[in-house]
Design brief:
CATH architecture: 2-Layer Sandwich
Strand content: 15-25%
Structural class: alpha+beta
Order of helices and strands: EHEEHE
Number of domains: 1
Number of helices: 2
Number of strands: 4
Low-confidence stretches: none
Strand order of the largest sheet: 1-4
CATH topology: Alpha-Beta Plaits
């Protein structure tokens, strides 16, 4: 099951995008409730390796489940 980045918790650090071995983490075109350009995971490409959650410094920003309700792409 793919991981998810919680849009409104993401701080836009991008450690996850740099560490992703399949390049499924993309920058958004919009901003979250914090006014930050957030990142999102393409569920169709994610291989569920969990590296994103290991490298993210923001507590609660990455979930080990596919949550369309918490992750926006734009």
């Amino acid at each position: 099951m793919p991981h998810s980045i919680v849009t409104d918790i993401c701080e836009g650090v991008a450690d996850c995008a740099q560490a992703c071995p399949v390049g499924c983490i993309k920058p958004s075109q919009g901003k979250n409730i914090k006014g930050i350009n957030f990142y999102w995971i393409n569920f169709e490409i994610c291989i569920d390796c969990g590296i994103c959650s290991q490298v993210c410094p923001v507590e609660g920003a990455v979930l080990a489940e596919e949550r369309h309700d918490l992750q926006r792409s734009n």
